[in-house]
Amino acid sequence: MMMKISTNTLLLPVLILTAIFALSCGGDDSDSDSDDGPDDDMNDDAANDDATDDDDVNDDADDDAFEGILPTTLDLTLIPTQSAEGWILGEGAPEPHISRNDLQAVATRSADEGPLSLAYFLVMTDQHQADEESPTRLDFFGSWEVFFGMFESFHRPQQDLTSQILNALVRTANGLQADYERDFDLALVLGDGADNAQFNEMKVLIDVLDGSGLSSVRDGWARPDSGDLNIDPATGHNLGERDFGIQEYDAWGNPNMLYFRPGYPNSNADFPVEGLLKTGGQALPWYYAIGNHDTLAGGGFNPDGKVTSFSRADYVGDIAYYGFIPGIASTVSWMKENGNKQLYIGNGFFGWDNNWQKLYLLMIWGEWRSEIDWRFDLDALVNDTPEDPSDDGVIITPDPKRAFMGPEGLIPLIHERGHGFDDNNDDGDVNAADGGWYRIDWPGENPDAPMPMRLLMLDTMDAAIVSEGGLSPAQLSWLKGELDQAVADKVLVIVGSHHHEEEIIVGGARFQALLHNCPNAILHLVGHDHKNKVVAHPDESANPLRGYWEVQTASTVEFPQQGRIVEVVDNRDGTGTIYATIFDHWPVKGDAADDLAGLGRDIALEEYAKLRLDDSRKFGGPGGPADRNVALIFDIPPDVADRLALMESSGAVTSTDVLGHRYEGE
Questions:
Q1: Whole-angstrom Cα distance, residue 211 to residue 225?
Q2: N or C, which end of the chain has less CB nearby within 10 Å?
């Protein structure tokens, strides 16, 4: 059980809600059979891609595979379209690059030869690989209305499909390299790869990106399942299983969970993964930045702290105190009807164990009645004893693979796979004591003539406050040294972090000052808010060399589930251009995993369409046209431009001369 804090006033919940939850990041089959007979997860395979019975793990492509050159949004866009059946994805017009010179860059020399492409790489972020069976899920609190929508990201109906969605984006990225005949130099993965800071969630992410088998113990296969499994003795594959205890079926014996989807494959079944690959089959290097969901329970709570949602023991335990169904609106209704009754649920309200009725006045605002979920039964969750929390919760099968990760688990796990972090304290080991910041010199195609580019990855959880980012004095000191070294080495600098700058509330002003004072810093790549957004940071002195760009990319879990291709180009006139191109995921193989990825996007669209079509919500969304396909102009320091002048022109610029010119329709 977690540490509990008592209070007899509303002050503490007000402080908790305003100081914590306002800061939080946003952004099949349900049986639990254990028999040895044939797979009873029937009616869950719509891929229809082979002649065998339901196998749930097939990897054969079928007629749904995308044919032809894969498009980017330079070719076509996928837009919300209203139909008689509701919101669907329609085909929209192409979006050309919008040229932006907010930094007022000025050409300082004549362009006597063609442009030089310096870097070409992939950006993705906020994958939120979710273990929907974990006893430490907070789906109970998921609401667009209660507590002013501060819990909106605690439940996503497509959360069981996050691994297949990411896999589709990876397959698409691989296909784009082949179709447009240029490999990415590397990929940046900007944090929140896990949803609830669990080892098994992060291992699935690594499997999808690497084509490994950490989760399944079978290279080339990912296993999003946990707890009960349904192993096929003939193949060793898990066919997919779930355990939601008393919430699994309704009173009439019908499946009670969102993840039962007749006509679709079981989303918890093992599925094939190839990982990020260059066109020759070599692994594409990728590097990771730490996000709040990677190291905090639910993205906002330290399980070792006094104000928390769960303890470390709860992660590997067999009690889901709040269950798995959104129930906060139903709980508000119950409190309204039972104002004289005490209500305690499970292990309390984020470390606060008083009567929930004292929160009632904070919970009644908004249209909560429209969010009452018919599947949720409060009496069942509290075992008909709302005043006694000792018998509350849903009993499930425990799993040690769900253990809480934290930075002490995340950093070695990622580093051992070759995806970032460094021995910053020179003790011969790479672990949490080193912090999560590191440098990567750009891997060019010609090692004998490397591009003068450098990547600095930051750890914005280093001095975080709850879910909001922070940079410690030690990390800022390291950053200053690296920026000074970049000037001395005459290289351009790209900075990557999970949090965008508005959310770096500790050390943020110092961070911005450091970038403004470094003429070689051109770009800050970020995630966290689950939407596409581009922000110019001109210097107060109006010196273009002291300005830089900040580019945020949408999440792969919420609509529109996109990635970015970024290309940095020397225009040969003393200026450079950062081309950022959005792409959607496509059913490259048309197998069961691709079917589920498409379903995941459809469900995410439905959620987005409920309240976000005006893009007014903080989390999620495609952003505006000037946030998507853009050409961002910057000044190149003269000494760097002199160095680049000695390098031969690359001829074509992939973002303008190749992308957008080959797609002819499917």
A1: 17
A2: C
Three-state SS annotation for 372-419? CCCCCCHHHHCCCCCCCHHHCCEECCCCHHHCECHHHHHHHHHHHCCC
* Residue of 140, 123, 122 lying closest to 132 (CA atoms): 140
Longest dimension (CA), the chain: 82
H helix or E strand, kind and range, residue 201 = helix 199-210
Q: Measured between alpha carbons, how far is 188 from 195 in angstroms, rounded to an integer?
A: 18
Identify any residues that bridge with 40 across adjacent strands, giving them in sequence order: none
- Three-state DSSP class for 635? strand
C-alpha 94/C-alpha 73 separation (Å) is 6
Q: How many Cβ atoms from other residues are within 10 Å of residue 413's Cβ?
A: 18
Q: Map residue 244 onto helix, strand or coil.
A: coil
**b/e sequence 465-491, b meaning 16+ C-beta within 10 Å:** ebbbbbbbeebbebbbebbeebbeebb
Residue whose token pair is 């290309």: 567
Question: Which residues are CB-neighbours of 188 under 8 A, at least 6 positions away?
Answer: 121, 122, 123, 124, 286, 287, 289, 455, 457, 496, 525
Within 8 A by CB and 6+ apart from 648, the residues are 116
Q: What is the DSSP letter of 58?
A: -
CA-to-CA distance for 474 and 79, rounded, in angstroms? 44
What is the crossing angle of helices 199-210 and 406-416, to 10°? 20
What are the backbone dihedrals phi and psi of residue 660, each rounded to the nearest 5 degrees, phi first?
A: 85, 5
**Distance, CA of 330 to CA of 356 (rounded, Å):** 13
The helix/strand count (H/E) of the chain reads as 13, 21
Locate 46 and state its tokens.
């719509």
3-state class (DSSP) for residue 519 = coil
Structure confidence by residue, pLDDT tens digits, 394-406: 999 999 999 999 9
Place of tokens 């296993």: 223
Residue 265 token pair:
């494959």
Q: Which letter does DSSP use for residue 611 in this model?
A: H
Rounded distance, CA 628 to CA 630, Å?
A: 6
Q: Which residues contact 252 (CB under 8 A, 6 or more apart)?
A: none
Whole-model pTM: value is 0.90
* Peptide linkage before 560 cis (omega within 30 of 0): yes
Q: How far is it, in rounded angstroms, from Cα 617 to Cα 345?
A: 30
The rounded distance, in Å, linking the Cα atoms of 224 and 337 is: 40
State the CB neighbour count (10 A cutoff) for residue 614.
7
Per residue in 448-485, pLDDT (tens digit) is: 667 899 999 999 999 998 889 999 999 999 999 999 99
What does the alpha-carbon distance between residue 148 and residue 542 come to, in Å, rounded to a whole number?
A: 40
443 pLDDT band (50/70/90 cuts)? confident
Q: Strand 453-457 vs strand 492-496: parallel, antiparallel, or unpaired?
A: parallel
Q: By the 8 A CB rule, do 209 and 189 touch? A: yes
Give the chain's length: 666
Closest CA to 95 of 564, 614, 586: 564
Q: How far apart are CA 169 and CA 175, in angstroms?
A: 10
- Estimate the share of the chain in helix, then strand, then coil, as percent rounded to the nearest 5: 25, 20, 55
Query: Is pLDDT at 83 greater than 70 in this prediction?
Result: yes
Other Cβ atoms closer than 10 A to 533: 20
